[in-house]
Write a structure and sequence with these properties.
- The structure is a homodimer of 415-residue chains.
- Helix content of chain A is 41%, strand content 25%.
- In chain A, strand 6 and strand 7 form a beta hairpin.
- In chain A, helix 2 packs parallel to helix 7 and helix 3 packs across helix 4.
- Chain A has 15 helices and 17 strands.
- The mean pLDDT of chain A is 92.
- At the A-B interface, helix 1, helix 2, strand 2, helix 6 and helix 8 of A face helix 1, helix 2, strand 2, helix 6 and helix 8 of B.
Chain lengths: 415, 415
């Protein structure tokens, strides 16, 4: 028997779009890593009747329902009342929770208020699991083969509770999963071209394999999923298919699963024992930020000059005033000079430089919004690319950063 | 009569958490700006039966159902088939769509393939709305007072179609909305303290006002919502409540609605005619990236030195080797020196500097992971803050960036 999970995300802020729901994504990934598919996801507002109805609807799809949100101390949070109503039970004062909240606030040297007393009322039929990073505990309810888990909506509290307490309870309850999936990450090839290439599959291609395409910012992730007789079987099917696909797609594939471009670039730099620096104008530090997301980046990344003004391009990156005058800040000549300047100023082996017009203003007929130059190179050799993007400011910048990371990758691989 | 909208997000990648669903957030915000509440949000996988069932469930909550995703050229996308099944109709070859796709690919100088022909088959009972940024058109179906809208899942295509075509169709169809909401943005005060302050409300406080608290990274957004006899009435109720709350919360409030911290900081710099620069170690460019997200940032931001290595701290930011030796890179003395160095090297009026241990490695007993120093100042006066965070690498960096932006704000306001 397989186990299925439904997610139920509670919060007016999710319905009206005031926050992006990263909790659902994170939980679904964590569950997939246990081989458990999320089969339903419902988002509902902070309304008791709606929550109760959504709990019922969620249990129609999965045996486990994991819900987040609505556990805060303030009056708009009604999840506990809804759960009590679902189980036809009452909220009771829970001393351990109150003591926990008290010591939490004592540690922060902040006073308790009346709301924290209210927050210590819990449904009486559940297991209460204390929250080490905040005040709202998690709850687990068992009835028959079904389980209802309620987690706080604050992302790091939710994650900590899931990792520390919920995960092992799920593992203990489930039979082995027959599912497995893996992802190939491609860059520089569109979804339909990718698909056209893949469609000529070998004759012995396993029909239990399904493929899905996830396009995002110059990249397409290709998800390979299989259901097998057991987890090992599914994993082997996926591994076999992955080899065939990697072979077919060659240099378009830059990584697998959680290999982001910045992780791949970091790995290559480490292998080559080279230090990277960036010289950024329109990307404003986003390339450096991406690179330093990776733990240990200090082993191959020295730093950057963000030269948002021409003054800084001249003073720190030694771009000649004449180059800026003759060709403009957004030009092939300028990004090449930025690479050369960054290599010297920051004393590095490889540099990448970006200059462009992110928009919405600053464009002209000759140099429209979305025009971006990227250069990447070392002391001997500098390559340049021009992009003409048609996105909004933020997306132009994000796309240019991804393209810059890919140029570093290609430079390091000699592609 | 009010109009209600249900969102239906289609895609296995959303259920299994392979992408974060930003479309739902964006759509809900766009609808709220029209005064239309999203009353339901269902996420379902790329499965025909599931999609058909979810369309039915969505229409139980709202008269309009806006769905996204599942319109791509590849085989995993089945939304059009599900819609045809829902309406009990057929998919037919649609010449205009095919011509559109053809000219789109001609412009990119890329060949068409067989999948694009398939992609030109559309349900015959809908209005087809061409996509100017991609290949999958949007569709609108009318039946009675109900509408089904299907949009592509690629975010910028979806947004463009909504803004250009769908929004005015919604406006034409709706009676005036009785809802309005606005947000106060606070920083430096916790959710329950905020609530405790607010709970002593004046006696003439409008009981139709509801408040919600959205905590996120050192900030809490306070949403003030009202339902009135009409939109203007609701707006006036919110405006009155907002004044009362701003007065109660004073300096904790840094902005309203879409005023991000970086927008507020930019506005202050522009007013003071001052130029900002950043000197970043552990934040790796994130502060600069935040500041340059705002269009026109070049009027008050010159650039940054990202000094990830001590070498760059010394060479470009002129941090004395002795300071690094005596106190370490993560110290009050170092961030003060970084501010002073950045002011000179980058020739600016105000600088902010951050140095810390983002984790997961690099901590020691004396200087644990999460220890972060921030300095902000001008040539006359430099202030320093120390944070001890307990989050993961990415969150420590994000939190430090927000705290740095707030220090700039407070410095500019003399707080």
């Amino acid at each position: 028997m397989e186990m299925k999970v439904s997610l139920l995300m509670v919060g007016d802020e999710l319905l009206i779009g005031q926050v992006v729901d990263t909790n659902a994504t994170w939980l679904a990934q964590a569950l997939w890593q246990l081989g458990i598919p999320v089969v339903s996801k419902i988002t509902c507002g902070d309304d008791m009747d709606d929550i109760v109805a959504a709990i019922h609807a969620s249990f129609e799809k999965g045996e486990w329902v994991i819900m987040t949100g609505g556990l805060g101390p303030t009056k708009d949070d009604v999840t506990k009342k809804a759960i009590a109503s679902f189980f036809n039970t009452e909220l009771k004062f829970h001393q351990e929770t109150y003591d926990r909240i008290k010591s939490y606030f004592n540690a922060l040297k902040r006073p308790l208020n009346e709301l924290h007393k209210e927050q210590s009322f819990m449904p009486e039929n559940g297991e209460i699991i204390q929250n080490e990073l905040g005040t709202a505990p998690a709850m687990l309810f068992e009835f028959g083969n079904k389980r209802l888990v309620s987690l706080p909506g604050v992302p790091y509290e939710m994650k900590d509770l899931f990792d520390r307490e919920i995960q092992r309870r799920i593992k203990a309850a489930i039979p082995e999963s027959p599912y497995f999936y893996s992802t190939l990450r491609t860059i520089g090839i569109g979804e339909s071209d990718l698909s056209a290439r893949i469609d000529e599959l070998p004759v012995d291609w396993d029909r239990d394999i399904s493929l899905a395409y996830l396009p995002d910012m110059a990249q397409v992730r290709l998800r390979i999923s299989a259901k097998g007789v057991n987890n090992k079987d599914a994993m082997e099917k996926v591994a076999k298919a992955r080899l065939i696909l990697k072979d077919k797609l060659g240099r378009w594939v830059y990584g697998e699963d959680n290999d982001s471009l910045e992780i791949v670039v970091g790995r290559l730099l480490l292998r080559e024992k080279k230090f990277l620096v960036t010289a950024e104008s329109c990307t404003g530090g986003l390339i450096a930020h991406s690179i330093t997301k990776v733990p240990g980046a200090s082993s191959y990344f020295k730093g950057s000059v963000i030269a948002y003004s021409n003054e800084v391009k001249e003073s720190l990156l030694k771009v000649p005033a004449q180059t800026l005058k003759d060709h403009g800040a957004v030009s092939e000549q300028t990004v090449i000079a930025m690479v050369r300047g960054a290599l010297i100023t920051l004393n590095a082996d490889i540099a990448v430089a970006v200059s462009g017009i992110a928009g919405p203003d600053g464009g002209s007929e000759k140099k429209p919004v979305g025009l971006i130059y990227i250069a990447c190179g070392d002391a001997n050799n500098v390559k340049v690319t021009m992009l003409q993007l048609n996105k909004d400011r933020q997306q132009n910048v994000a796309y240019a950063s991804v393209a810059a990371l890919n140029m570093i990758r290609k430079f390091l691989l000699g592609l």
